[in-house]
């Protein structure tokens, strides 16, 4: 109870008040990570901004508290990335192979950086490195819920080696 007699309910959400008194929920507390130099990264906010890139079908930002930058696992949008590769004359055997190509990784990273700038994200919120994932995340794969929300822990465990590689 506060001094005005209001009762607050602890939901684990992060919100902000608008000048008109409205409370907007902007993220979950557990989805906020503190980086090495004390900056806080709101994973959900960053993911929503970067999902604007045409190359992103799905994305999970990973912020390691022992580093000063975050990284991203990007489920690549197959049609967009293949169209780009065709325009570049980039040869590849299949979509998984295309996702391994350095040129494709650089193109997607540049697109994410552009989306981050448009959303006015801070430099530390913009992924420094990215891993392209060829296979979609579906409820059947266990990586997202039926409502298509990320199962962060499951994704982290599944792509543990890839995440370690991004910080190597």
Automatic annotation (TrEMBL):
GO cellular component: endoplasmic reticulum; membrane
GO molecular function: ATP binding; long-chain fatty acid-CoA ligase activity
Keyword Zinc: no
Catalytic reaction(s) noted: a long-chain fatty acid + ATP + CoA = a long-chain fatty acyl-CoA + AMP + diphosphate
SUPFAM superfamilies: Acetyl-CoA synthetase-like
Nucleotide-binding is among the record's keywords: yes
Entry keywords, A to Z: ATP-binding, Ligase, Nucleotide-binding
Coiled-coil ranges (or none): none
Family: Belongs to the ATP-dependent AMP-binding enzyme family.
Listed name of the protein: Uncharacterized protein
Organism: Aegilops tauschii subsp. strangulata
Higher taxonomy: Eukaryota, Viridiplantae, Streptophyta, Embryophyta, Tracheophyta
């Amino acid at each position: 109870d506060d001094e005005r007699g209001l009762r607050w309910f602890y939901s684990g959400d992060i919100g902000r008040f608008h000048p008109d008194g409205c409370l907007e929920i902007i993220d979950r507390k557990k989805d906020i990570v503190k980086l090495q130099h004390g900056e806080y990264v709101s994973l959900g906010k960053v993911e929503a901004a970067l999902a604007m890139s045409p190359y992103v079908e799905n994305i999970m930002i990973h912020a390691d508290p022992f580093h000063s930058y975050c990284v991203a696992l990007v489920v690549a949008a197959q049609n967009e990335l293949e169209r780009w590769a065709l325009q570049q004359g980039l040869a590849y055997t299949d979509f998984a192979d295309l996702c391994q190509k350095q040129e494709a990784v650089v193109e997607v990273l540049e697109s994410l950086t552009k989306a981050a700038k448009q959303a006015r994200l801070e430099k530390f919120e913009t992924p420094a490195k990215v891993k392209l994932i060829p296979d979609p995340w579906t409820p059947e794969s266990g990586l997202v819920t039926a409502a298509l929300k990320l199962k962060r822990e499951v994704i982290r465990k599944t792509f543990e080696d890839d995440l370690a590689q991004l910080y190597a």
